[in-house]
Specification:
Two copies of one chain form a homodimer.
Chain A (H helix, E strand, L loop, with lengths): L23 H10 L8 E2 L1 H8 L3 H14 L2 E4 L3 E4 L4 H25 L2 H16 L4 H16 L5 H20 L4 H19 L3 H25 L8
Chain A binds a DNA duplex (30 and 30 nucleotides) through helix 3.
Chain lengths: ~230, ~230
DNA sequence: TTCACACGGATTACACATAATCAAGTCATC
DNA sequence: GATGACTTGATTATGTGTAATCCGTGTGAA
């Protein structure tokens, strides 16, 4: 096993600093992820400037930042669009997600503390009790996996996972998990906790993979059903 | 096996369009990758504006774009720096590279055409014959792997690989491969071709992994040796 | 050491000029 | 009359320049 490394570095912090007012591109990313700026929609600089109460310059900078992050597509002299989220894209990022998460969880097997496990159980209990409220569910789900993977040294991998996770959340907001899916999700979460407790690497990898593939399958089904609503361009 | 998908989509095209003049952020990325803007160095907007013969606005936009791509670090009211490339970072991206490349090569096993293999052999012959000229070596190496992975449907994965590859090239420019490393590299390239010919998935994955880890080890050694030169700040 | 202050540079706003794109309409040709 | 090429005008992106403000850092005095 490779020696542990300092984990202070993060390639893509979601928020630059805790107490600072969030920068414009963070606000816009939130609005994209939450679906307020729908996937595929046109982003005009003047409209955005008005909407967010700033001048055009910061808007242009935010758009470029988001373009670099992959949330926005820029084309020369034709402005910006929110990146369309299609089936193809979903498959792609879940393929990557499976790779990254099974990589991340292998580290958790060895490094998750007793406190981490307690926290995961606590969070999962709250998820179990939750009814409705997709927003809160997503927040708790992210928190659960945040504890699972948070100790990992590889900030790059975490950044990729988080970025893709945000896109997935944007979709999940539109297509909430069905009750059946919720039950499966919860069972898988408990299975992850159990695998970590037992230091069972094979089981952990298997469950994590299954968890991701399940989410993928569910999203794809919903995407196909409601294929009229989320118009891509 | 999952059905094939349309591969027309690319999350992060290096150049927006072929015939267009490259945008500023592309030029700046090239200069970062080539080492002209050294890792860790301060990027002042006014200096850059003068250097590239444009006003401050486009420079700021380019910086934001590069920040989103991970090549530049921005901090509020303190300007921009080229992202420092340290040992920790190199380890991280190679961990990811191993994941991505073994994923990509599995597809190549099934989908590489006879023409692809011919092309790979041709490129590798040119690499074998090449002496010195790190720039040309890097170009050919990228071309080799471009053919290997190019048919893959997962544009996201290709984008991640390419982005990381550019960073690695920035380092390789500073720390060229030793003759011994070159010999190993070439042997590994031929082994990849052979594995693809034989449709031997296990072998292909093994070689690709070994290839990446070898490059990582070599870079890390060089980084430690010349640890005075690449000053982070 | 600590505080006040000045300076450099980033950030924002605004006004303006240019250029590209798109849509609608005109015109010529078949 | 229908089709396709061209013109035109509105819209919007893109680039420049300037000014005002904010923030971080270093300097120097108490």
């Amino acid at each position: 096993m490779r020696p542990e490394r300092d984990a202070s570095f993060d390639a893509d912090p979601v928020s630059s600093r805790e107490s600072d007012p969030p920068s414009l591109h963070e606000v816009m990313r939130r609005d994209i992820v939450s679906g307020e700026l729908p996937a595929g929609s046109r982003l005009k600089t003047q409209e955005l400037a008005q909407r967010y109460g700033v001048s055009i310059n910061p808007v242009r900078e935010a758009l470029h930042q988001l373009s670099g992050e992959g949330f926005v597509l820029l084309s020369r002299n034709r402005g910006a669009r929110v990146r369309p989220l299609d089936e193809h894209f979903v498959r792609n990022i879940f393929d990557i997600r499976v790779l990254i998460e099974s990589y991340l969880v292998r580290f958790a097997i060895e490094h998750a503390t007793e406190a981490d496990l307690r926290q995961m159980r606590e969070i999962q209990r709250r998820i179990d009790d939750l009814v409705g409220d997709q927003v809160e569910l997503d927040r708790l789900d992210e928190e659960f996996h945040g504890v699972t993977y948070g100790r990992h040294f590889n900030g790059e991998a975490l950044a990729i996972r988080q970025r893709h996770g945000q896109v997935v959340h944007a979709l999940a907001m539109r297509y909430p998990a069905s009750p059946a899916r919720r039950v499966t999700q919860n069972a898988e979460h408990w299975a992850i906790v159990e695998a970590l407790e037992k230091h069972d690497e094979a089981a952990a990898v298997r469950v994590v993979e299954q968890h991701a593939r399940g989410a993928e399958r569910h999203l794809l089904e919903r995407l196909r059903q409601g294929s009229t609503t989320p118009k891509s361009f």
